[in-house]
Amino acid sequence: MIRPATPSDVPEILSMIHELAAYEKAAHEVRVTEEQLRATLFGDRPAAFAHMAEHDGEVAGFMLWFLTFSTWRGTHGIYLEDLYVRPRHRGGGHGFALITELARICAERGYQRLEWSVLDWNEPSIAFYEKLGAVRQDEWLKYRLTDEPLRRLGSRRD
């Protein structure tokens, strides 16, 4: 069963964010708190959205996503920030059901893109996404500013 997350899901979402970060060998990078997640997902102006996958009343996985905008297409799209299925539930169709729900939302709302990133070593996920018909975007390089370089640039006044 796939359903929208509720405020009571926040502790479980945070737990799975930690599980996902450990799987991706980046546990040390997680800084988000329950309070931040609650405000982001359920505050006055939600900046992101989450859905839960359940199996026999147990949380099997989740996805967290937000809206994007394409100047080329002139419409919103969805960026899938995280899709995670707990190891004991993998192979049960939960990941497929989650991403299918996002595709349904895109189609229902007239959005023309569903995008995400995957680590280059994560062969099981790459195979899963390519089986769906997703196309790797090798011509685009991803860049990121964080921490001190971001603060330094943001504090410039020239």
UniProtKB/TrEMBL annotation:
<dbReference type="InterPro" id="IPR000182">
    <property type="entry name" value="GNAT_dom"/>
</dbReference>
<dbReference type="GO" id="GO:0008080">
    <property type="term" value="F:N-acetyltransferase activity"/>
</dbReference>
<dbReference type="InterPro" id="IPR016181">
    <property type="entry name" value="Acyl_CoA_acyltransferase"/>
</dbReference>
<protein>
    <submittedName>
        <fullName>GNAT family N-acetyltransferase</fullName>
    </submittedName>
</protein>
<keyword id="KW-0808">Transferase</keyword>
<keyword id="KW-0012">Acyltransferase</keyword>
<dbReference type="Pfam" id="PF00583">
    <property type="entry name" value="Acetyltransf_1"/>
</dbReference>
<comment type="similarity">
    <text>Belongs to the acetyltransferase family.</text>
</comment>
<dbReference type="InterPro" id="IPR051016">
    <property type="entry name" value="Diverse_Substrate_AcTransf"/>
</dbReference>
